Amino acid sequence: MSTLYVVKIGGNIIDDEKKLSSFLKDFAAVKGHKILIHGGGKLATKLAEQMNIPQQMIDGRRITDAETLKVVTMVYAGYINKNIVAQLQANNCNAIGLSGADGNVILAHKRNHPTIDYGFAGDVDAINTTLLKSILDQQVSVVMAPITHDQKGQLLNTNADTIAQEVANALSSLYDVQLIYSFEKSGVLLDANDDSTVISSINPSYYQQLKSEQKIFAGMIPKLDNAFAALNKGVKKVIIGKAEQLTDLITGKAGTSIVHE
Amino acid sequence: MSTLYVVKIGGNIIDDEKKLSSFLKDFAAVKGHKILIHGGGKLATKLAEQMNIPQQMIDGRRITDAETLKVVTMVYAGYINKNIVAQLQANNCNAIGLSGADGNVILAHKRNHPTIDYGFAGDVDAINTTLLKSILDQQVSVVMAPITHDQKGQLLNTNADTIAQEVANALSSLYDVQLIYSFEKSGVLLDANDDSTVISSINPSYYQQLKSEQKIFAGMIPKLDNAFAALNKGVKKVIIGKAEQLTDLITGKAGTSIVHE
């Protein structure tokens, strides 16, 4: 099977024009099949302010009312997605920008939480791998916006990390998938305040050891649990590190690789 | 060759939620390959007002400065495009929404006018038929937003009528293309004020006769000239009529068909 890179970039890159442009140049240069999944950044919040739409957050999550859904659809699936695609084209990387509604690529349902009404937030049900494969096999990269749909006409705001993981899991039957999560730090650190203490590779037994020695920063544990879950679903490797180091993340010269035993 | 319907809908349908929903139900029911091209409607103007971006019009054309480009990218390629796709999915019509940057489907250049600076307005150079064909042949319909790109990273605001014509022309080597332009009237009328005087079919010699007898409303002449130009480039039939009558436009029971001799 050929290799597929599924790369998630966070809002800190989206919000910084220079960093984004440099990242896209690196992404364009990566050889082989690739999917880029982007979050939202601060643009949606800024547009909501300009439009006088109050933003409600519960536990750090945005509550997506009807007006906010309109804003995130415009910003994520419109402005950010199309500008990323145009920049990739300028770097000789043919790319196609999709929401989950396009080609029914990501089917989701409105979140049903017992106590909190998250509004039009979507939880993923299924990935349509056929269309994705046909696009990738034409040497066209895919750029995914974190908007899905329920096949009943409703668009839904969906967590980009979750989309990355679901897409990586689903495509691991067709490709050797490497899932790359970019964030602010250089990788998983032994000392949370020292970027030079990156652990280059973690397998399940080393993870157990690090956890029992309480050497893993608590905030990293859900990320790592998700990474190991992805490996169990067929993903070959999960890499966590800085978007600015994409090339080195792929060659293993930077970041933390989460691998099988 | 199989038939491909290229359907352009105007802003009057986009702006009317009920009319749009009813049109999309009809569009979903059309058998065979199909592409929907949508304009913008009043939503972009409204958003620009909310964002305090002054809109400059010259001869009925919007001047696309950088801030306005951001607005139309969000509204056309984001909000309108994704909502149309989600509604088609709800009607069991698998569809994919694209801008011209996606898959490099429509390459354009910034308009270079001797006296007027239209800003980021694009004139079409080329259509990438390979990717469009591969999507259509998977029984997936295409929904095109009137945003193109120049392959140098610049998105461009582009006239939707022009996109419809260019897409129809380019695909006429691969499909029997029927190009359907929807507008406010029921078709080409003998009496501009009487919707019951629709001319059902016009061929080149009848067009010459109607023009010499001054029976064609002056405003229709550019539309008809474009329709005959499309026929000369390989399009099989051009139909002009009301979006509300899509089904009857296709079967020839409504609207005006512009056909070869």
TrEMBL record, chains A, B:
Enzyme Commission number(s): 2.7.2.8
Source organism per UniProt: Niastella caeni
A single GO molecular function term of this UniProt record: acetylglutamate kinase activity
Keyword Oxidoreductase (UniProt): no
Signal peptide: none
UniProt family annotation: Belongs to the acetylglutamate kinase family. ArgB subfamily.
Main location: cytoplasm
Name this protein carries in UniProt: Acetylglutamate kinase
Metabolic or biological pathway: Amino-acid biosynthesis; L-arginine biosynthesis; N(2)-acetyl-L-ornithine from L-glutamate: step 2/4
Keywords annotated in UniProt: Amino-acid biosynthesis, Arginine biosynthesis, ATP-binding, Cytoplasm, Kinase, Nucleotide-binding, Transferase
Highest taxon in the source lineage: Bacteria
One annotated Gene Ontology cellular component of this protein: cytoplasm
Subcellular location: Cytoplasm
Pfam families reported in the protein's UniProt record: AA_kinase
Annotated site, Transition state stabilizer, chain positions: 8, 223
Aspartate/glutamate/uridylate kinase domain segment(s): 5-241
Catalysed transformations (reactions): N-acetyl-L-glutamate + ATP = N-acetyl-L-glutamyl 5-phosphate + ADP
Residues reported in the UniProt entry to bind substrate: 40-41, 62, 157
Function summary: Catalyzes the ATP-dependent phosphorylation of N-acetyl-L-glutamate.
BP GO terms, sorted: L-arginine biosynthetic process via ornithine
InterPro entries: AceGlu_kinase-like_sf, AcgluKinase_fam, ArgB, Asp/Glu/Uridylate_kinase
